[in-house]
Amino acid sequence: MSSDDCNTFLSKMDDSDKDIRIVALTDLIETFKENSKKISNDDAKRYTDTLFKALDDSQSYVQNLATECLAACIKVIDTAIAINVAKAICDHIAGNQSEKKANAMSVALRVMTSRIAEGSDNRALLAQLAIPIVNTLTSATALASDVIVDIFTALMDVLVHAGTQIANDDAALNSVQRLLLNYISNKNTAVSRRTITVLGTFVVCVPGEQSKKALDIIFQRYKDAIRDNEKCMLLRVLVTIARQKPELIRSHIGDIINRELEIVDEADNELRVASLLAMKTFVAKAPDLTGFRIDDIYTVGVNAIRFDPDYNYDDESDQTDDMDTTSEDGLDDEFDEDIYEDNEDISWDIRLSGVKLLSEITESGLFSHERVVQDIGAVFVECFREREDVVRAEILLKYAKIFSNLGQKQRQSQEHSADMDIDSNVNDMVRQQIPSAVAAILSAIKNYPKHVETKQLAFAIFTRFVPLSISAVDSVLSKIMPLVISTLESGDIASASQAVSTSIVKTNIKIDALDFLLEYIKRTRLSTEADGFLFTIKDKIKDAASSSLTMVQTATCEVSSAILKLLRLAADSAEKSIEHYLSWANEMTEVVLTLVNTKDHALRISSYSFIGTVLYEFGDLLNDAVVDNALKVLTDWNQGIEMTQSSIGALLTAVTKPTHLPEGFVASVASTIMKQANERLQNSNTRFHTAALELVKSLSEYKLAAVNDFGPSTIAKIVDIICATPESPPLPALRAFAGVCTHVSVDTVNGISSSLLTCLSMATIYDKLSADALEDLYRTVGEAFPSVVKSWEKSLFGKWTANYVQLDSMRLVKPMETAQMHHPINKLPNAAKSIIALRVGYYRQSGQPWSSEFLYEALNMSTKSAEGIAHVCLGLRAFGYLAIGGQLDENESLCAQLYKHIESSNGDVRGEAAFALGNYAGRFPDNFSNLFESAMKATTAGAATGTLEEASDIRDISGPDKIQAVKIAIEYTLHSKSDVAVTKGMWNQIAGFVQKGNSTISDVLAQGLAIIAVNHPRTFISQLASCVDNSKNKYAKQFFITVFRTVLADKGLDYQCNEEIKKALPAVLANISDCDVGIRRLCLLALYTVIQNKNVLTKEIVATIQPMLFAQTMVDDSLVRFVTMGPFKKRIDDGLETRKCAYQCVHVLVRTMPDAIDMDSVVDCVIRGIYDEQDIRTVVQQIVNESAARFPTAFYARLGDLVDAISKMQATKLGKNSVKQEIEKHKEMLKLTVGIVYSLERIFPKQAESDSKFGKLVGSLAAGPGGEPNSEDLAEFYKELKSPSSASAAEATISPMI
């Protein structure tokens, strides 16, 4: 954008023709939107001056475009210029309060302020808008309410984005506070409500004492208020604050609740609504502070929901027998034009607030499930006949949510543990309440037949009853049936749902009814009641399939499919005869067959799904002509990709065994299917591959001539698909090969075996389904073609060996890391499982018992060559899998072989031997003791001379592998669910050895014990804590703390395990003060792990732990030593790692549990950390970033000490002979201290600009290089942090509350 462009625009804006001005503004808007480059300040001022004048244009459309232009230009002009425009707008509004002009200006101010706040990083400039905005509102005497609301909205944006800066400007702070406190009593409702929101924002977003004082003033004025309207407004402010930041008013919540409970039932309507809203908010945001009066709060909610002084419900009929659920003209007149039947009566607002309060109690956990159903649920049922539609809808919605929550709890109890199960009393209460609830709902529908939402919510409630008590629903089916029938018979008009219930009801009432039917049908067992119900409505369901609404048709197909499954289940279990449904099934199928060509994707899928289901469930009962027509539709694969996909999916359902579709029908279409499937297998579309392969697999389970005829060509195409992606062969292709290969000759198999085995040898399969499919493939080949087993087995060994030899040669010429990336060890599981599967099929076909003799040859090969190593590894892996599968007999000779190989000089052999030996010992636990003793002997040989690391050169090389075998044996024992006595024996042997040991024990062994503890928490976690307490040497204590920490790191622990950990935590963490630095470090690591993963377990002990934790942040001089290195002495701090762990614990506490930590102690350790080593200072900066903005008072109180520490470190000089490493370390230290200063500057900008210590420190950094030490580096680092990108990132880190 050039100056010439600007001149052209200005000339057009001076034109008297409004159309020219409009075109100029429209073009400028597009130019601003497309351009991101800043324009010159001169051009920016010319543009904004002209746009500002345009806000005063005589044409409103020009005013609107000028406003849009000002908003769009924010990104291309300097922020200071934009702020000046906003100030000018404020001045103009204050001086020209005519409604038309002020309105255009206020909209521009609101939009500009919003864009500046979002797009600018300069919060200080934004804060400068506060006083002009306040002055505008203060001087306003005749401004319209919508103008005032716009200006307050602009002020709110300033507070949200520049609250910290305003907090440091006394003039702005005081003027904003004074304005807001004056305006909350404004007589205009819109203005007073917006003021309430802004005042709440002020308290929440402006840190410091002034906002606290504002809160105190608000609270005091609330307590002193005499007039109800004033008290109402002040209470709404407190509620606004509680919604955004409840911790600010926690200390007042109890007092507010007590006061409101005294007056709420007698207050006028508006105050009563505000009081109910306050209690609802406090129950939601601070349930721990409302529990002491929860019964009284409940009573208030009940009184409110029953409050209707001008209406007598007793005059209404309660009977629902022979009810008429429709109006005279059906459902054409579904919704009253006026939702409120009595516009003069506002008692409905009180009742609505009462509903929301009671609902919040149900969500808070302050009432048991039993009380929720018995007390709140019963009250809701009582009020179902509420006369105001919006209140009735809210009652029904909240009632439905009660049962949604109960259903969710029930599902969780089934998925996880019994601890979450719903009390049986609750289930009994639900069963008892369902009949009365249904009667009340139907009564409400009878009284208000035009209100469709009531009916929709009724179906939503019925749907939620079903999973909780199907028997209770059965008992009321006859009463629900007329509503279902009338709904399905109604016309296809959209429902007039209100916003109240859109979260749980559909766009059409028929869909709600069908959803209920679907849930019911899926869960019922076709009781007598269910049979009668379904038989009565089946034709209505069929008619719904002809609806003009595709969503209704889709839901109907789903319901009909569920009915078919239910009927067949009942017939197969001899519960019911289903012959009386056959005509419906035939007619329904004929209707659905007409829907398959629909353009609606969801309907097409559901209709094809129904056809597949009806053939699968009723294929032997349907008329032959219907079956033929259905199969004709399903075998027509020339309808486009998506329809063909749906067709194949339905056909797959229909023919997959155990289908009820007679084999004769399958045979009649098998040739067509196989022919088309072969064509699709050549298609490049992988979706066709998958569907066709699955269909071929299903057909291969039949003895059909068509499959035999197409078998050779089909299997060749399947091999091509497998070989197209040899490293990850498609699961359907593996399954299809296993199925089709039984329909071809051995010559065909031999013809494709070479290419197939080559491809499969390249596969690395991890997911269980694909691994199972690969095994099934080899097992089928072994069973169907025993003559090829040995050649295939030989080929598998050969392919694996070739892969391994390639790796072995690669290790000689490439770095180990690069070679390891190509390590074929990942292909080893597939090769081993494949060989075993081949033999399983072979022995199954021959009728011979299993024998492992074929693998012993591999174990006996020499490991002096890569080929021999490959064979041994494959044999060992296979033996490991045989042990896991229970196919291995105990064999002393085999055991000896495994011990021999685990002591091999080759690491790959040792690793595979560990796998085999570990699983062998797990399979035969009597061998565990010998394995453990051997492992300990190997790992501790010579260790008496010092630590394990010092003794590694004289230790048995097999030690780590034997320990791994011990762990594998433990895992096997636990996964096989062996007798707990076996596990106890393992635990006792390991724990006993550790207690007697005098050296460090492998962490792998600790992982083994951790696995035991996690699987049997009640037995072993308490024992683990006891082991920590009773350990007589440091090595044992370190080991058991490591076990405990490993348990803590598991994020998938169940409720029982967490409870046991919670009991053990205090005893284990008490060792943070142990005399041994290694034990202290491990305890701190455990503390870090539990806070990071499960901080809820530490809430009760944080206060006890903190003194010990902060003590560990101090330097322990007894751990500092000096080592002479030539002419130098090097300082070594053996406590550094422990101290770093302590600081990391402080950091994670600050981040995850800020309200539980003593911030004064945090600031103390921050100051100590600045003087400490570089590793500590890094964590210190993170602590400052996380906590300074949240707790400015604590940091402000010690700002002088922080400055002293930082200044001292920044004045540190390097020695003349410093090496490169020392120079870099020194620069990093300086950079970190500057980062801390910058973080504090953003929190305390006012102090940074003052003449205080802190101000002088900031000033010296900003001034640039001077004569002081390190000033050049410090100035450079400070400048780097002040750059826009760094400032933006820092703000995101430092100001999380904004």
UniProtKB/TrEMBL annotation:
<dbReference type="InterPro" id="IPR039852">
    <property type="entry name" value="CAND1/CAND2"/>
</dbReference>
<dbReference type="InterPro" id="IPR013932">
    <property type="entry name" value="TATA-bd_TIP120"/>
</dbReference>
<comment type="similarity">
    <text>Belongs to the CAND family.</text>
</comment>
<dbReference type="InterPro" id="IPR016024">
    <property type="entry name" value="ARM-type_fold"/>
</dbReference>
<dbReference type="GO" id="GO:0010265">
    <property type="term" value="P:SCF complex assembly"/>
</dbReference>
<dbReference type="InterPro" id="IPR011989">
    <property type="entry name" value="ARM-like"/>
</dbReference>
<dbReference type="Pfam" id="PF08623">
    <property type="entry name" value="TIP120"/>
</dbReference>
<protein>
    <submittedName>
        <fullName>Cullin-associated NEDD8-dissociated protein 1</fullName>
    </submittedName>
</protein>
<feature type="region of interest" description="Disordered">
    <location>
        <begin position="311"/>
        <end position="332"/>
    </location>
</feature>
<keyword id="KW-0833">Ubl conjugation pathway</keyword>
<feature type="domain" description="TATA-binding protein interacting (TIP20)">
    <location>
        <begin position="1099"/>
        <end position="1258"/>
    </location>
</feature>
<keyword id="KW-0677">Repeat</keyword>
